[in-house]
Amino acid sequence: MKTLFRLLLVAGVFGGFAASAYFPIKNYFDVRNRPLWRTQSVSYGDIALTVNSTGKVEPIHRVSVGASVSGPISELFVDYNSQVVEGQLMARIDARIYKSTVARDQALLQTRLAEVARAEALQLQAINDERRGGELKKANRDFISEAELDQFRFVRMTRDAELLVSKTNVDQAKAQLDNSLANLAYTEILSPCDGVVIEKKIDIGQTLAAQFQTPEMFVVAPEMDKRMHIYASVDEADIGMIRKAQSDGQVVRFTVDAYPEELFDQGKIVQVRLSSTEEQNVITYPVIVETPNIGLKLLPGMTANLSFQINKREAIVRVPNAALRFYPPRDKVHPDDRRIIDGVDEQKQLVADTAKQMSANEKAAATLAQNLRHVWISDGVFLRAKSVRTGISDNRYTELIEGELSEHVELVVGEKPKQ
Length: 419
Description:
The protein is of the alpha+beta class. Among the domains are: 33-47 and 317-415, no CATH class; 95-186. It is built from seven helices and 20 strands. The protein has helices at 2-33, 96-139, 146-186, 239-248, 321-325, 338-354, 360-369; strands at 37-41, 43-59, 63-66, 71-76, 83-84, 89-93, 188-190, 195-200, 207-208, 216-221, 227-235, 251-256, 259-272, 277-279, 282-292, 303-320, 372-379, 382-393, 397-403, 410-415. The strands form four sheets. It has a six-stranded antiparallel beta barrel. Strand 18 and strand 19 (397-403) form a beta hairpin.
């Protein structure tokens, strides 16, 4: 009996120890097995909505300088990167043939002028003969016959026509001489504008043939030391925002590989062209950006990485984008909020199933509904959802328009791995 009592006493003591240790041990394992969450806090700051693209730097204009006459190049006065002014001599074509043509046409003009003088003399003689014949006829009708008077009159008319032909030949000779002088002038290649020579396509001794197509000799870029254009291709999904940025006068910032540490922040949108380009079922539109070119840092052909600023919010409440992208496992969500997780899954499936069948109104409404989101905060064992309405976004934060969140609230963005 005593032995049984002792056994029961020992069992009771051990049971009391076990009962007193159960809850601490249970709490220890609960805490140990509780998930650890990675968090980011709600903050105040600025957000700039941007559209990124790449583009090619080009001069505002590319003026092609060609030749109107043929012949070998006898002299060159400019080279690559030469600064030129309007009217500056850039090259000269061998002019010997054109000089001889001018001399020939000048001699021909003198000949035509001499023919005019001869025709005038013959005309004057014919006029005098006709006048004297008329006077004789008045003095005595028998001195001269009507046939002789007709002869004098028709000779005078012939001399008038010959003088007219001679004067026309003079005009023709002058025009031919002017053409020869113009061709001679064209042997000197002059710059049509102020600028920089960015291409030179000829060398001394090279023969130009301008009979069928005007040969291109130089390409001059005017105002390259003042401003440049960037030709960017923007996706059709973003072109509406680009046009809004243009109307609002938003700045365009960009970098180039030649100066990766320097930010160029004075670009402006000058044109959104209507001509689209399709490549692999992707539609893009050309967007022209103008930027100063201080120090000639921007050179033709450089690749620019552009950021079109669409909108900007200053000193606003911001939610981390990672918190908006995070969706927790259903078993780690508070039972009252599990319907949100279920609804998200159902909505994803609904969108996947009906995207092609949705009407335009439904698609627009669905796009607006995307601004209604949920973020998650830790509430002990489970996560609780907070509804938010969002605005513009950048690569890190999204504007908070509505929601029961304040600065420094920690939002769950992921689960930490177990140690």
